[in-house]
TrEMBL record:
Keywords: Hydrolase. Residues 56-209 form the Phospholipase/carboxylesterase/thioesterase domain. InterPro entries: AB_hydrolase_fold, LYPA1-2/EST-like, PLipase/COase/thioEstase. The keyword Metal-binding does not apply. It comes from the Bacteria. Belongs to the AB hydrolase superfamily. AB hydrolase 2 family. The keyword Isomerase does not apply. This is Phospholipase/carboxylesterase. PANTHER family: LYSOPHOSPHOLIPASE-LIKE PROTEIN 1 (PTHR10655:SF17), LYSOPHOSPHOLIPASE-RELATED (PTHR10655). It comes from Paenibacillus forsythiae.
Length: 219
């Protein structure tokens, strides 16, 4: 099959095909690239397979996964296409590398967070958990997409209290929506704008590390 996206993969030291590793798929924000969130997740590189996925639409010096009609209003055809292609990529990469299918995680920031939460809702138990930073779930996803259960999914979402792009009200609304589907959602706010603080980074890394270890023990 054609590879849906350009990507960068970081394999754990001592990587062995015969073993199975948790994997973290990283989705960047508008105008960035596939290496952006790999730096954020770098402390996990000895435990996880890290895969940064590059958006396939150029934007400035970087890339995006879909275009907007206006802020918060994705071009529906491009958004639908991105979701389908990302699902296909996750399955492709899971076959190419020694991925534990029970420990697949998606990390996203801004546009990447919007897609991470959408993938959670469309892929259901094919994903173990998500980390969504400063994003939201589009209304048309909630009402028009065929949604899968996220009851057993591990979900960490966070938002900047002074985010000028997606105001904090959106963060609280997103948390309330996901909490209506999963009563174990972790929601954190931080005194910052549209960005990731050091404290945010530390908490999300701890969440991913602990969740992947607990999942492994239960198998």
């Amino acid at each position: 099959m054609d590879i849906p996206y350009e990507y960068t993969v970081v394999l754990p030291e001592g990587y062995k095909e015969g073993e199975r590793y948790p994997v973290l798929f990283a989705l960047h924000g508008k105008g960035s690239n596939e290496r952006d969130l790999l730096g954020l997740a770098e402390p996990l590189k000895d435990e996880f397979i890290l895969i940064g996925i590059r958006g396939d639409l150029p934007m400035g010096q970087g890339y995006q996964y879909y275009e907007l009609r206006s802020l918060g209003n994705p071009i529906r055809e491009l958004f639908d296409r991105a979701v389908a292609r990302l699902e296909a990529f996750i399955e492709y990469a899971s076959e190419q590398y020694a991925v534990d299918p029970e420990r697949r995680y998606v990390l996203g920031f801004s546009q990447g967070a919007i897609l991470a939460m959408t993938l959670a809702l469309t892929m259901g138990d094919r994903i173990k958990g998500i980390v969504a930073l400063n994003g939201y779930v589009p209304d048309f996803v909630k009402t028009e997409y065929p949604l899968q259960s996220v009851t057993n999914m591990s979900i960490f979402i966070s938002h900047g209290e002074f985010d000028p792009v997606f105001p904090i009200k959106i963060g609280h609304e997103t948390a309330a929506y996901l909490n209506s589907l999963n009563d174990r959602v972790i929601f954190r706010t931080y005194p910052c704008g549209h960005e990731v603080t050091g404290a945010n980074r530390q908490e999300l890394l701890t969440f991913l590390r602990e969740d992947s270890l607990n999942s492994h023990v239960k198998e």
